[in-house]
């Protein structure tokens, strides 16, 4: 069934503030949570469209930021995105090439 559908291209756009940090508008209907499986070796993210887009924008914003001072985003602190009270943190870490 999926093979008959034409491939579509989607573009995700974010805005950065003066400090080169992502601007993430409030999404009241956003829901995002996670569960770990296989003794913590598997992470399952679950969310509605708004929550998954918020995660994608936050991840893209962190990837594009030039800050290297340990800045990170706590999505659960900024947005009420999960009823379980789980912490969802996004941080950029550049590792030197071997």
Description of the structure:
The chain has 98 residues and is α+β, with helices and mostly antiparallel strands. The chain has a domain at 30-91. It contains 2 helices and 6 strands. The protein has helices at residues 49-64, 75-78, and strands at 15-16, 22-23, 32-37, 42-47, 72-74, 89-91. The chain has a two-stranded antiparallel sheet. The longest helix is centred in the middle third of the chain and has 16 residues, at 49-64. The N and C termini lie far apart (43 Å).
Short description:
The protein is an alpha+beta fold. Helix content is 20%, strand content 22%.
Please specify the SSE layout and strand pairing:
Elements: E1 15-16, E2 22-23, E3 32-37, E4 42-47, H1 49-64, E5 72-74, H2 75-78, E6 89-91
Antiparallel strand pairs: 1-2, 3-4, 5-6
